[in-house]
Amino acid sequence: MTFSTGASHKLLYFLRNCATLLSMENEYEKLVIISSPSGGGKGTLIKKLLDDVDGVWLSVSATSRQPREGETNGKSYYFMSRDEFKESIEQNGFLEWAEYSGNLYGTPRKYIHDHLDNGDVVLLEIEVQGASDVMKRCPGCHSVFIMPPSLEILESRLRGRNTDSEESIRKRMQAAEFELECAEQYEKIIVNDDLDVAFKELKEYINRVAD
Ligand code: 5GP
Q: I want to staple 97 with a disulfide (CB 3.0 to 4.6 A). Which of 4, 24, 106, 125 is the partner?
């Protein structure tokens, strides 16, 4: 088969675009978003994952909310004032950020690319608005939604952990109704009814991403 010069230029242009798209996809092929309503159990599942699977790195987010008992700066979150957070937004310091339940949360850009370049699976434990931004900005990334068995069970888990005020629980339950509607946008949904079963499913999914 022969091509005219015009046709071969078009073909070359098309192939180059495909190559660019493919390399963009590869850039984020080990980036995994994990979301669930607050109290949905993603924290416990992620902790188990980090203990169990090598080569998985969890990004530490920044937040303007007050630390809870037992949380440490730089490990649980980078705790900052609202003003510091806004300054960081202006300096383009976040891959994504969102307001959730009256507080600001964001993923610092720093370190994400270092870990991806290193071949690590990079986990972002973020809520649904930020997740939607990352899905658009990072083509080829993966995403898991941890679904609570029901809103009633979610509320009783939130109350059971004894870390939130009545007002905070009310806001988080309101947010949860919206978040559950967003679950369909995720590549994988895991129902966290039985922790061991949910963990097995999550681990299999992460191992497939890592391979
Ligand atoms: P919590 O206050 O319970 O630690 O977190 C509240 C919500 O904010 C959770 O759904 C958590 O996943 C989300 N979150 C934590 N870090 C980030 C972040 O960097 N960006 C976004 N968009 N959400 C985050």
A: 106
pLDDT in tens, 68-79: 999 999 999 999
Closest CA to 182 of 105, 127, 128: 128
* CA pair distance 76, 68, nearest whole angstrom: 10
- For residue 62, the ligand 1 atom closest to its alpha carbon is 19
Contact in structure between 104 and 97 (CB atoms under 8 Å): yes
Using CA positions, which residue lies closest to atom 23 of ligand 1? 126
This prediction has a pTM of 0.87
> From the DSSP assignment, how many helices (H) and strands (E) are in the chain?
8, 9
How far is the centre of ligand 1, averaged over its atoms, from the C-alpha of 61 (Å)?
Answer: 8
56's tokens: 């998985």
Res 5: pLDDT: 65
Q: What is the pLDDT of residue 152?
A: 93
Closest CA to ligand 1's atom 6: 38
The closest residue, in CA terms, to atom 18 on ligand 1 is 106
Distance 146 CA to ligand 1 centre (A): 14
Alpha-carbon distance 11 to 21, whole Å? 15
> Dihedral (C-alpha) 56, 61, 65, 70: value to the nearest 10 degrees?
40
Q: Which residues pair with residue 98 across a beta bridge?
A: 105
What are the residue ranges in the chain where pLDDT is below 70? 1-5, 17-25
Report the DSSP beta bridge partners of residue 108.
94
Q: Using the mean position of ligand 1's atoms as its centre, give its distance from the Cα of residue 209 in Å.
A: 23
